[in-house]
Amino acid sequence: MKKIILTLSSLLLGGIVVFAQEQGQIAKSIFKTKNQRLESNKGKFFAYWGYNFSSYAKSDIHFTGPNYDFTLHDVKAGDRPTKLSMTYINPGRITVPQFNLHFGYFIKDNYSISLGWDHMKYVMDVPQSVRITGYIGDEISNPGLPTGSKAGTYNGEYITVDSAMLTFEHTDGYNFASIGLERYDDIYVNRKGKQVLNTETGLDVGLLIPRTDAHLFGEGGNHYWNIAGYGASAKVGVQYHFWKGLYLQGTFKTGYTDLRNIRTTGRRGVDKATQGIWFFENFWVLGVRF
């Protein structure tokens, strides 16, 4: 019995030592740094908050409902950043601008998993001239909405989309709720091992939860948030750790989102739109590790 107890104790103590060594191990960077950080990130949490600018590739928007089925091709759109003002530091209004909020946990010294909310804004340019295919009846939806001169069958002709026909934006917003996996590599570590410059690369997948403000032939509104689709993205950025757990980060992210259930007139089960969007996002944030 004594031998068994000693053996188990030895194994347990050995496991604790190995775990402690693993906890304090600094991962190798793809960059050859002269100095090394003082402590491992494994087991730490992080959070960051900041703001973004975004842009979008041209996209097709497909509209369907009673007596209409048409697609607008190569639609142009942009973002809508809030002008620099007290809004950015007003606790009651800091979620009005295009913001980024992420939380994460380091599963290894140089790998983390995260949950994020990227609040972007997507605004279709109106008016604009685009190609159109499909058909638009004299009256569409239910109850009927008159379409005037826009009624007809189309096979790639150009049409001018004005505000009487359509306004279309995800401004509250084009929200990407994601889970992510990130990798970190040190570029520079100061002599004391406390100030660090490192890269962050990663992949995100998640859901698109927009609040779409749309009007189709005069009918619509700023609709409630809904799960409209899904998306995936890749990102690369740089972090500068300047004091204790605080750091500044700049990141470029690009991704594709497939929105299959966009609200237009607000008449559920009657009218909807679908759209695939390539987005390009640049964000700057203040973060903390703890």
Describe, in short, the structure shown.
Helix content is 8%, strand content 59%. The protein has 290 residues and is mainly β.
Task: Indicate the proportion of strand residues.
Answer: over 45%
The low-confidence parts are 1-22
Alpha-carbon Rg, integer: 25 Å
Report the sheet with the most strands, covering strand number, pairing sense and barrel closure. Answer: 8 strands, antiparallel, barrel
Q: Identify the strand order in the major beta sheet.
A: 1-5-6-11-12-15-16-17
Instruction: Count every helix, treating DSSP H or I runs of 4 or more residues as helices.
Output: 1
How many individual β-strands? 17
Give the overall shape: elongated
How many angstroms separate the termini?
44 Å
Mean pLDDT over all positions: 90
Structural class: mainly beta
Helical content class = under 10%
**Helix and strand sequence:** HEEEEEEEEEEEEEEEEE
List keywords for this structure.
single chain; 290 residues; mainly beta; 59% strand; disordered N terminus
Reconstruct the topology from this structure.
Blueprint: H1 2-23, E1 45-56, E2 59-65, E3 68-75, E4 77-78, E5 99-108, E6 111-124, E7 128-136, E8 139-140, E9 145-146, E10 152-161, E11 166-189, E12 196-208, E13 212-216, E14 219-222, E15 229-243, E16 246-262, E17 272-289
Antiparallel strand pairs: 1-5, 1-17, 2-3, 2-17, 3-7, 4-6, 5-6, 6-11, 7-10, 8-9, 11-12, 11-13, 12-15, 13-14, 15-16, 16-17
